[in-house]
Amino acid sequence: MNYIDIAEAAKATGKNQITIRRLIKKATSAPYVRLEKSEFGDKYTLEVNYLFSQYAPLNTYHQKPFNNDSTLTTHEDGTQGIQVFERLLQEKEERIKDLKLQLDKKDDQLDKKDKIIESLTETMKLLPTYTAASPAQNLPWWKRLFK
Question: Facing residues of 37 across strands?
Fold first, then answer.
């Protein structure tokens, strides 16, 4: 059985270390937890299969795996896998194009917000300014009435 420490478990599941510590403290987790002594102090380790039965593992590979197709062979001129690289390049170019479109949309939203802020500041300038109440207005109502 493989055991990992709290920091590695947090990285493997994408959870916070406090969440992993809560899992370790549960009574049902006791058979899967070990306390290892080291020169720097005690360290809890957790059995990997139990951890992944409680929390799904985090997928660290965001890209498709690179595989060689049977159609890709070494040609006489030494070009191997050019089609794969061209496909990857095309996918990256499409991703860049999508990101540029998203960036343009965000720029448009920022421009709209700037215009709204400018119009609100202009309307605020048109509002009358607040002045402090005169001392006569701070008097109770009955003193103002019988003055």
Answer: 42
Q: What's the average model confidence in pLDDT over 121-138?
A: 77
How far apart (Å, rounded) are the C-alpha atoms in residues 40 and 56? 30
Residue 28 has pLDDT above 90, yes or no: yes
Backbone angles phi, psi at 40, to 5 degrees: -95, -5
Spans of all domains in the chain: 3-54, 85-125
Residue 3's SS3 state is strand
Q: How far apart are CA 88 and CA 84, in angstroms?
A: 6
pLDDT digits (tens, 9 = 90+) for 52-78: 999 988 865 444 444 444 444 455 555
Six-digit token string for 36: 């290892």
CB distance 6 to 24 below 8 Å: yes
Q: Which two tokens stand for residue 101?
A: 């479109």
- The CATH T-level fold of domain 3-54 is Arc Repressor Mutant, subunit A (1.10.10)
Of how many residues is the chain composed? 147
Give residue 79's pLDDT band: very low, low, confident or very high (50, 70, 90): low
